[in-house]
Write a structure and sequence with these properties.
The chain is α/β, with parallel strands linked by helices. It contains nine helices and five strands.
Length: 231
């Protein structure tokens, strides 16, 4: 049986990846991490979406230790999310080590259930500048998991080379545009759907959606070209 584990936050990107995975795998497991993030609503949204999408296995894992170690505007209520970069060139919403931890735990879970595919919605083309969303990092993690567990995993990143407009087109390709737009939580201020309209995440999301809605034929064509190349 063809099994996959999807790292699932309930946001736009991971929900799009989950929708896609459900069409491609015999058995899909979603794993959501409770790391003491700024908005607990994230976890509730992920649970609701997993039910609505018919995911048979959805695991919520407590990794609140990350909150104790990683200081970020996404782990501290008293740090406002900023549009400005820090001295190190990264946004203050960067949670150091987050994707290292998430992919490691997803790999352990995949090992136990007999899955070889681990799917994550990270993206290098149109992102917030997080180093743990880059293709080079993912490939390094893939190699480490394979060596550390003596098993051939494949960390799949369906959005890696898509911009946000193309990510919206991908959701539409799987007839999930309305679901992703209305029922996912991407906003750093914890507002469902289109969000607060002010935080960096909402800016990126809205810019991509506007571009897609205004140029649907062109964006869809670009997406289909990339999908055919990936095959």
């Amino acid at each position: 049986m063809n099994k996959a584990v999807v790292v699932f936050s309930g946001g736009q990107d991971s929900t799009t990846c989950l929708v896609k995975a459900l069409t491609e795998y015999d058995e899909v497991h979603a794993i959501t991490f409770d790391y003491g993030q700024r908005h607990k609503l994230e976890i509730e949204v992920a649970q609701q979406l997993a039910i609505e999408l018919g995911v048979k296995a959805h695991k919520v894992m407590d990794v609140s230790l990350l909150n104790e170690l990683a200081i970020s505007s996404l782990t501290r209520d008293d740090i406002a999310v900023s549009h400005e970069l820090q001295e190190n060139g990264l946004p203050n919403s960067f949670v150091p080590g987050r994707n290292i931890l998430f992919l490691t735990l997803a790999g352990i879970y995949a090992y136990q259930i007999g899955a070889t595919a681990i799917i994550t919605g990270v993206c290098e083309t149109d992102f917030s500048g997080y180093p743990d969303c880059r293709d080079q990092f993912v490939k390094a993690m893939n190699g480490a998991l394979n060596q550390g567990m003596d098993k051939q995993f494949s960390i799949e990143t369906p959005l890696m080379w898509l911009n946000k407009a193309q990510t919206w087109a991908l959701a539409d390709h799987y007839n999930a545009l309305s679901l992703v737009r209305e029922k996912t939580l991407t906003c750093y201020n914890g507002i469902l759907g289109d969000g607060c309209g002010d935080c960096p995440s909402c800016d990126l999301r809205k810019k991509g959606l506007d571009e897609y809605l205004n140029n649907q034929s062109e964006v869809k064509a670009e997406l289909l070209t990339k999908m055919s190349v990936d095959k």
